[in-house]
Design goal:
By secondary structure, the chain is an alpha+beta fold. It is built from nine helices and nine strands. Strands 1, 2, 3, 4, 5, 6 and 7 form a seven-stranded mixed sheet that branches. Strands 8-9 form a two-stranded antiparallel sheet. Strand 3 and strand 4 form a beta hairpin. Helix 5 packs antiparallel against helix 6. It is globular.
Length: 230
């Protein structure tokens, strides 16, 4: 469960992104997106246990002019940190750690620099699915707009990458989806979105999907709620 200090830090981070003018160029993709799914989906209760916040950075050429992003984050209570082996940038306060991610570039580098922010984002495979399947959600609870993945895309992404995750994180994702995926599949739009994503999988992705749903104990959920022979 999230505590008040963590939630306060999260909204300070979002405020910093807005001040920097990049709030529309990022998608919240980590487990914290589930706090918005709690409002968006009927009967879903999030169980967030991580203090890591992950944002997918959409257009590496934005912003078009220089922004003193590290200074803005510092003014909102976050300290700059950099991995000197990979140059990966992080921001942290006593409650949370903020990271930015990007899909792999043609150069296949571990990180890539957002020039006008002066930060390096981590490049990971598989993020294209989230890049093409997000929406701008208005939260009445928090009185704000935020870009979040479609719930079906969030679930599909978690399934496809599960075998690449560290054991502890893979297990955490399994537990999370055992809670979330049934809610998505009984939702008309969620079921439709999941079906479209399933039908778009490559042979390699389909193989990963079938192996991973078994390892994640999701087979029974999918076979009973997703009306397709897998």
């Amino acid at each position: 469960m999230l505590n008040e200090n963590e939630i306060d830090s999260f909204f300070r981070a979002l405020s910093a992104l807005k001040v920097a003018g990049i709030n529309n160029n990022v998608v919240l993709v980590g487990s914290w997106v589930e706090m918005f799914y709690e409002e968006y989906l009927d009967d879903f209760n999030a169980n967030i246990k991580t203090t890591d916040i992950d944002f997918l950075y959409l257009n590496l050429n934005n912003p078009s002019e220089k922004v003193y992003f590290t200074k803005i984050m510092n003014q909102h209570g976050f300290i700059y940190d950099e991995d000197y082996m990979t140059n990966k940038t992080k921001f942290y306060d006593p409650n949370l750690e903020i990271e930015f991610l990007s899909k792999l570039t043609r150069q296949q580098t571990q990180t890539v620099k957002v020039q006008n922010l002066g930060i390096y984002v981590e490049c990971l495979g598989g993020l294209e699915l989230l890049e093409h399947n997000y929406f701008s959600y208005y939260s009445y609870k928090y009185n704000m707009n935020i870009n979040i993945p479609k719930p079906a895309a969030y679930c599909m992404h978690k399934i496809l990458i599960n075998n690449t995750r560290a054991p502890a994180k893979a297990k955490k994702d399994s537990v999370s989806l055992q809670n979330l995926l049934p809610i998505v599949l009984i939702n008309n739009q969620g079921s439709k979105d999941f079906d479209e994503l399933y039908n778009s999988l490559s042979k390699k992705q389909l193989s990963n999907f079938k192996i991973n749903i078994k390892n994640m104990n999701l087979e029974e959920i999918i076979n009973s709620l997703y009306l397709k022979t897998l």
